[in-house]
Structures
1.
Amino acid sequence: WQLHALRSFSSRSMLSEQQTFMNFQVAFDGEVDDILRACLLEAEDFANNPDHRWLVIWGERGSGKSHLCAAADNHLRQAGVATLFITAPDLLASLRESLEMQSNTEQESYAGRLRMIKTAPVLILDDLSAEASSPWSDSVLFEILDYRYRNRLPTMIVTNSPPDSLEPRISSRIQDTSLCVVVENAAPDYRRRPRHEKRTG
């Protein structure tokens, strides 16, 4: 039931359903890129053993970070683990929608949606910092991540921004080395790779 309930909030797409660890490309110009390989290994390690762990991957656009989010999500779901894979903009849009609906049902109410996000067995949050920042959005994201931080709930975060540049309270939590592994993905833009090195399935 958790898998079904969380599915309606997810940012899964036809493309993300096809993205796996097996088809994540670690080569650039015919040579294995050590940065991409390190990111792949960390994402696989998290997906194989997510309990009480956070993984944060940051770097420029187009470096394969979202592929690793989707791959971790697919891996965990195949193992029967309930996950929520969602972008920060989609997460905030879902909560705004629930405020506007003013529904009394648990799944559609603001409090219900917020609770499901905060307590998801595994949260995979893509594109943190891509959302339009405001006092409300900063407060909501902090509430979610602080809850998960205090309860040591498995969380994978991807962002284009250096951790130090994020909202200070969030930045502090995602750099706690007792809980988090932070990896910089400084690999070249996937979109610029040779055509034969691009493969999604």
Note: The chain has eight helices and seven strands.
2.
Amino acid sequence: MDPSPIDAERLRSLRRMKAVALALLVAAAVVYVITKIDGGEGWVGYVRAFSEAAMVGALADWFAVTALFRHPLRLPIPHTAIIPKRKDQIGRSLGEFVESNFLTQEVLGERLAHADIGRRLGVWLSEPDNAQRASEALGDALKGTLEVLDDKEVQHGLEGVVRRRISDTPAAPLFGKAIDLTIDGGHHQRLLDSVLVGLGGFLEDNRVTFRKRLDEESPWWVPEPIDDRVFEKIYTAVGSFIADVGNDPHHEVRGSVDTRVAALAERLKHDPEMLAKGEALKDELLDHPEFRAWIESLWLGTKRAMIDAADDPASELRVRAATSLQQLGTRLSADPALQDKVDDWVERAVGYVIDRYRSEVGDLIANTVERWDGESTAEKMELQVGRDLQFIRINGTLVGGLAGVAIHALSALL
């Protein structure tokens, strides 16, 4: 796999520093050869001592740096290639180090205490564009959550909730209270008006049918004109009665309806027989296949509507979410007490996560390192710190040379 641009740049930098360190070693070797051939003393001896000690220092530090990542000169020298051999222990130690020194409530709590998260969040959300982006993120989260939910499980849970709710609510008293509300609002009288109008229309539409039925029921010996008069009398009387009831808001029939409806409401609320019938009807309803079909359609319809709304920037859900978030941001940016609440909530939430899951982070680091092979681990770590380690070689060359000069000077004095 091709390295990332960052890793490629790190590799080029590492190679440059290796070349610099190697160039110093070669330069020291060349100087040593020249001064050795010259064989002179005086200042030449100091230069030779510098170059000789510089080579020793450079080679020693090259060995030390190389031994971290691989066998020097591919020779299986003991205690070399330390990182490939001990990568599992290094990964575990690194995980424990991060867990013990970074993922603690004290460290993160101190950092969060000065982060001013509540105010920053408020200022950010108060910008319309930011509130819109936040609502988009919420919409994506809602959509993703709904799409991964198991519809069967949700329907089963929803059915259980609805079933328990309905089962715990006595049916008959509920209908009784509904009738009481209907009476209080006079709705039953308006219903009676509608029934009377419909009944009048029904009589008018079926006039011929009723007349024919009278012919069938009337004795054969009754003259037809008499049947006509009887029919007209009855038909007119019924029509007039319906009209009278409809036109008179204080008609005795309306009072009778009030009395009977109120009595029905009381029976529904208190009569054991009506209570039992209501429960039986409720149980029959809950066991009906159409009830489950209704629950299924309820959930699927709601889910589809919420997904469409979450995915549509112009939907009322998204628009209201953006507006609410902006209003929250405006209030949060100007309310220190609310900012303190948000800061406290964030600190407690982070503390909760740290207490329960910080070991997971350590295990993640350790397990990730364990899955790497030794050479890959060495290469990754060398890319990260190898460039800086080359300064050890450079410093070793210079410090070694200076140490050689000091030793040569001390020898000359003695």
Note: Residues 374-413 form the longest helix (40 residues).
3.
Amino acid sequence: MYNNKVVLCIIPARGGSKGLPGKNIKKLLGKPLIAYSIEQARHSKYIDRVIVSTDSKAIADISKQYSAEAPFMRPKKYAEDNSSIFDVLLHAMDWLEKKENYFFDILVLLHVTAPLRHVKD
């Protein structure tokens, strides 16, 4: 929570990487790549909830092992090479509002492919 505002973090991670298949769960220094973003979000003193938006059961399972939520599977139309990140985020927010009646004030987007950021960032 930040200034009495609920902070949601969404980490988009699709399973269909063509350049490096399975990149989001490939090991980097002994951990799946996605684990770094999840851990950074979990260690933030501001973020209340960490959601992974994915179309992959393997990514969802690994995300849960690192204490993130993956409460839905992203539809295929939002997991294509040309899918808009805005559509991915809108899908996640819509799902949370309609299925869980969950509302937030601030959205944080963390990309899996930026593992070298620091939690203070």
Note: The chain has a mean pLDDT of 95.
4.
Amino acid sequence: MRRFGSYLYGLLPRGWLDAAWQFLLFFLAYNGYQVVRGITDGSRELAYANADRIIDLERSLGTYFELDLQRALIDHASWLIDFANFMYLNSHFVVTTGFLAWLYLFRNQHFYFVRNMFMVAMLLALIGYALYPTAPPRLMPGEGFTDTIAAFTGVAQDDETASLLVNQYAAVPSMHIAFSLMVAVPAAALARNVIARTLWPAYPLCVFFVIVATGNHFWFDAAAGAMVASVAAVAATQLARLRPSVWAWQSERPQEATA
């Protein structure tokens, strides 16, 4: 048992205390993010009004394609809908968590820059949810959308299920897109083979297809998520000036720095 503990300790680039601190940061950030985004009192009418505004905007631009895409997939490619449902339910957490764990353990000198990006992005998302609560397409059957996740899982996701930890009106920005970009760009930059460098840039595109096909987001939401990721990257770059030996995107492992 002691030998196994020593082996695990050897995997940790900066020891147990730093690993525990990083876990605690993400745990607090994520749960605080969930609680704050779940405060929805009085936002229902505004959320639907904002969703209608997005539809009107997309129609005015000639880019309102989400409904036609979903209908075509349901009618002619149901297996793609099943794939999108599975990906929506699993990839956001599994890919993001898996990448962050890999980055911490095996490319630790780059971890803290990415961590700071995530922290900033989650803060920006909360501001967006508070200022612009928006219902997702799947809660608008009057427009013709289908809640494919509910059909896939057998669990209703109507707006009556909004609670302290689940906000049905948190469509803008799409953090599926923001997270996928903040994972894919660093992963592609660190990839050491051609296949990985090719596949990682395709990941955000796959996520975009998934969130639209399942009726969880408009393209406008995805664009807002991409903007959040971009601003978070700029903010992380500026924050790195405070602790360049730790928080900057490092090319070499720092010798004696702690986060």
Note: The chain is about 70% helix and 0% strand.
